Structure formats: C-alpha cells, structure tokens
Amino acid sequence: MATYRFRVKYEHDPRSLWRDIIVGADRTLDEFQSVLNSAVGLNQDHLWFFGTDQDYWDSDVQYKRPGEIEQSPDGMLRGGEEYDAGETTVGQMARQLDLDERDRICYLFDYGDEWRFYAILKEINEGGTSDTEPEVVKKKGEPVEQYPPPGEGW
Predict the structure, then answer these.
(1) d(CA 73, CA 83)
(2) Plasmid pRiA4b Orf3-like domain location, by residue (predicted)?
(3) Which residues in 119-135 are b (16+ Cβ under 10 Å) and which e?
(4) What are phi and psi of 91, to 5 degrees?
C-alpha cells in the first residue's frame, strides 16, 4: 500500500520546532497522534483533533480523539464531518481529504490551551509497508514545555 512522511510544525514557531514522522497507511490517526505528541513534548490527556489545511476550528472535517464524538453535545462541529481517530487510518484520511504531496492538515491539542500544529505531507511512498508504525525520522528544536516546572507558575 503506502507510507506517508509528514513534517509536523509548531504553528507558533514553525522554523524552530518540527518533526518528520513516517507512518503506514493502515495505522490509525490515534497511533499517529500518540507519536506526534511524545515527539513535541505533549504528554497530557486532553481532547484533540486533526483537520483540514490550517483551518483548525473552521475545518469542515475533524478526526477526533477516540470517544470524544460520543461524549460531545450535538452541534460541536458547525456543519462539518466528524470521524473517530481511533477507527480512521492515515490512508483513509488521505483519501477522504484527497491529500497530495505538499498538502497540509492541522492538529489541535487541548481545546483550552490550543496547542496548534500543522503537518505538511512531504512524501507518499507507494512501495512502503502500510503497517509501518509511526516513527520520528528527523527533527529540529526542543520539545515544548506543556506545563511550567513546579514553583514557576504560569
């Protein structure tokens, strides 16, 4: 099938913090998100979603954290489509969004603090192994500090 190589950039400082992640088409978005979070320093349990381009809240399609859709009141997404990221593979998302190389998706983590990242699809390897586990293969910059050290406060 295929593997995908995404360059994930921190929207606040995209030149200083990014990670290249390779992931197989048959891996879920939840698996991709787990590796992404660890790679950029976000390790807490919060709500999150992937969306189109760099649209974030205005995205017409959102791939949400497993269980969130069932727990959300109706109308949380204004007229768009919602998918469970634990049931949606990277390949399914790529087909649904008609992603080509250089296209972007957004990733928003923690609806309160709104950690914003976007991912550029750098490469589609049609000869790759579709069950390839998500892996960071290249990186730049130090992980973010999600919470300040004890005693330093906000």
Answers:
(1) 15
(2) 3-140
(3) bbbeebeeebebebebe
(4) -65, -40
Would you list the DSSP string of 71-91? HSPTTSSSS-EEEETTT-BHH
The conformation of residue 141, written as its DSSP 8-state character, comes to S
Residue 8 three-state SS: strand
- CA nearest to 10, candidates 144, 145, 152: 144
pLDDT at 79 over 70: no
Distance, CA of 55 to CA of 88 (rounded, Å): 20
Q: Please state the pTM of the whole predicted model.
A: 0.90
Roughly how many angstroms between the first and final C-alpha of the chain, as a whole number? 46
Pull the structure tokens for residue 142. Answer: 């130090």
**Which tens digits make up the pLDDT trace of 41-64?**
998 789 999 999 999 999 999 999
Contact 25, 124 (CB under 8 A): no
Q: Domains along the chain? A: 3-140 (3.10.290.30)
